[in-house]
Amino acid sequence: MTLKLSVLAQRLELDYTGNDFDITGVNTLDKAGPTEVSFLVNPKYSQQLDSTMAGCVLTSGHYVDKVERALVSSNVYMDLAKIVDIFAEPQGCLSGVSELAYVHPTAKVDESVTVYPFAFVGAEAVIGAETTIFTGCYVGEKSQIGENCILYPNSVVMGRVVLGNNVILQPGAVLGGDGYGFAQTPTGHLKIQQIGTVEIGDDVEVGSNTTIDRAALDSTRIKRGTKIDNLVQIGHNVQVGEHCLIVGQVAIGGSSIVGNGVVLAGQVGVTDNAVIGDGAMIGGQSGVSGRVKAGSKMAGTPVMPAATFLKAAGVCMPKLPELFRRVKRLEKELAAVMSAAESGENDE
To answer: Which among 42, 68, 286, 296 counts the fewest CB atoms within 10 Å?
Structure first.
């Protein structure tokens, strides 16, 4: 794909400096060639502007005079995402429903849907316009898939699960597997059938090998605009609000409530029935239980205000070995004093 700088600037509603030229792609400052656009988001890489071969650099006004051509942006990261989207080549090479796919006669599949070989679409499933279902996908009975969704290879949508519009399931995502529910009995663990479902809002993305369990009776819900990374576990009956960011290896226990705009960093663990308020941010590897107030920044296990955790981790923890040695030394000195005191009493 080739695009004039002037056309790209017009699409993005940005000003540009320098003469017009043909753009063929996007790359980093150190790898870009004369026909590619690069970008400067983090100022610590600004020294690379002196050596970059990029034909044009997307940057803020502060750095415009340092390059021959610039696209001037007030939100570089956002406009970079738009540029990459323009030049990205879509996955896949087929259209229509393959003869090697199985689509149940009672399924309602829009004529614009693409279904790749060896995909399965169950009875009474409904699939909206412009959706693509790749090889190895399973779409269960009575499930509903909205418009313009992408189910990448080997993703699973179990029966009666509902997906909104513009949902992306990365390879291996599993929606609607049974929640982890067992009753303890004298003879072992009795499975509690999970007869609820999963509801996914519009514009949600679910990462590779992430699992979202169906509810026991009602619905596990992920609301509009939330983005979920790879290798995330979301338990049954969990309610996740709008526009959350849930990073890799997060695990959310059953019946927990996550508000709107929450950020859960990597490897955060959330216990059953926890409540996290709107806009809260939880640092990586933290353990959350109980309630977290809206807008708070928390970290650590058990979770505490991030500033407190950073003081404890950065100031106190490095001193623990020396404190341990001092305590041992003081214990020996105290033991000697007590021994001398006892000897004096005995002499009397």
So the answer is: 42
53 burial type by CB count under 10 A (0-12 exposed, 13-18 middle, 19+ buried)? middle
Please identify every residue annotated as catalytic: 236
CATH topology of domain 3-87: 3.40.1390
User: pLDDT tens, 232-287?
Assistant: 999 999 999 999 999 999 999 999 999 999 999 999 999 999 999 999 999 999 99
Around Cβ 317, how many Cβ atoms within 10 Å?
A: 10
Please provide the distance, in angstroms rounded to a whole number, between the alpha carbons at the two ends of the chain: 100
CA distances 203 to 34, 148, 165, 276, Å, are 35, 10, 6, 22
Which residues of the chain are under the pLDDT cut of 50? none
Structural tokens at position 203:
């514009």
For 272, the 3-state DSSP assignment is coil
For the record, the structure tokens of 217 come out as 């009776």
- Enter the pTM of the model: 0.89
Instruction: Give the integer Cα–Cα distance in Å for 238 and 212.
Output: 9
Q: Which two tokens stand for residue 88?
A: 């990205």
Rounded Cα distance between 113 and 139, Å, is: 13
pLDDT at 348: 58
102-308 folds as UDP N-Acetylglucosamine Acyltransferase; domain 1 (2.160.10)
- pLDDT per residue as tens digits for the range 301-312: 999 999 999 888
